[in-house]
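re: ur msg from earlier - yeah i can do the nicotinamide-adenine-dinucleotide complex, just paste it... oh wait u already did. ok heres what im feeding in:
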Amino acid sequence: MAKDYLDYNITQEKEIDTSRKLKVGIIGTGWIAGDHIRQYLKMPDVEVVAGADLIPGKAQAFFEENGLDGVRCYPDHKSMLDAETELDAVSVCTYNATHAECAIYALEKGVHVLLEKPMCVTTQEAVEIIRAERKSGKILSIGFQPRFDPNMIKLKEVVASGVLGQIHYIQTGGGRRRGIPTPFGTSFIQADTGVIGAMGDIGCYSLDMVLHAIGYPRPLTVSGYTSDFFGKNPAYYEVEGKPAEYANVFGVEDFAAGFIRLEGGIILDFRIAWAMNLDTPGDTILMGTKGSLRIPSTNCWNGSVGGPMKIYHEVAGSEVETEIPILPEGGDMNFYTKLRSFLDAVKEGGASPVPSSQILYNQAIIDGIIRSARLGREIEIEIPEI
Ligand SMILES: NC(=O)c1ccc[n+]([C@@H]2O[C@H](COP(=O)([O-])OP(=O)(O)OC[C@H]3O[C@@H](n4cnc5c(N)ncnc54)[C@H](O)[C@@H]3O)[C@@H](O)[C@H]2O)c1
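and the outut:
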């Protein structure tokens, strides 16, 4: 029987069947690819055989740095997928702008895909990826490792227990006081590579946290706002000791907010910041007819909770608060499980651990916020038939 993602909770060592080795490729050998290779190297049933990067020499250097000889390197995803006819799976670790083309091409070649988050940059791209997935019959999983964090699993269990009753209002988001990501370059902040900024980097996680907890209802309408006051300001980078020219290439949002109506009469109030003159724009809260849950925000959106979750409810006429003990964060184990659960689904023919059918709604909200912000009014979230 296929493993459920909850099976991966906490216990690290799972028996791995090494009778069949999986041939894996990595498309895009930048920052996050390092996390993928480190996890693949722990797995005795995985052979990383190929890699691709647009920057000449980057893929070769990447594999050498990670102690791998003989990995075949290519100048882009197409040449790799055309030449490597034995690949079982690929990690798509490119910047946001090329997620869709790489994922679709791999699926068309009959290769299973682990696609980094955000899924892509528009609703239309998400729809096209899902069409390719369905046509291919291959596994597509989206790289949301916080889902495997013990506290996130607990959140889903709290909601499933029914203690909150009918959830009707959710506030989520968060972000960083100062934290525009320009660690080794500018692919996160440029319009032609990142395309979406704070929402694609961390906003998609906070949306996933609450939407996954409540079963991913369809988004219906959104009133969105985006801004770039920090990213476009040269002084921001100077204070951080980074090139002031980053302000000229900054082409995405550093803050976004959205008021979203979801199917089932649920309201979602969302905001996310890469930079703000504030500690936090608020905790995550889920308000329900029987109880409400408060999830303390973290100071950077690191994929877990910022303190013990608390339920506010009424017991025998008394107003009571129940604290959910905080669990040790999954950390590196969350990344391991992201890859392992995908590969197990590939080997066992199981369901995708982080299915595109859910993340489509995540993407549609982000896309809706951007479109609504441009139009300056509330819009309907339209999702084409797949
Ligand atoms: N899950 C996480 O915790 C996490 C963390 C960081 C980044 N990410 C995601 O990973 C993605 C990559 O981020 P990064 O920081 O590694 O970016 P990066 O700029 O460091 O690396 C991306 C690489 O992809 C290459 N590339 C782009 N298109 C390509 C193509 N068609 N074929 C081959 N190579 C191609 C680029 O040349 C670049 O070297 C982003 O979408 C980001 O959101 C996820």
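cool cool. The pocket of nicotinamide-adenine-dinucleotide is lined by residues 27-33, 52-55, 58, 76-77, 93-96, 98, 102, 116-117, 143, 145, 185, 187, 200-201 (CB under 6 Å). ping me if u need the other ligands too
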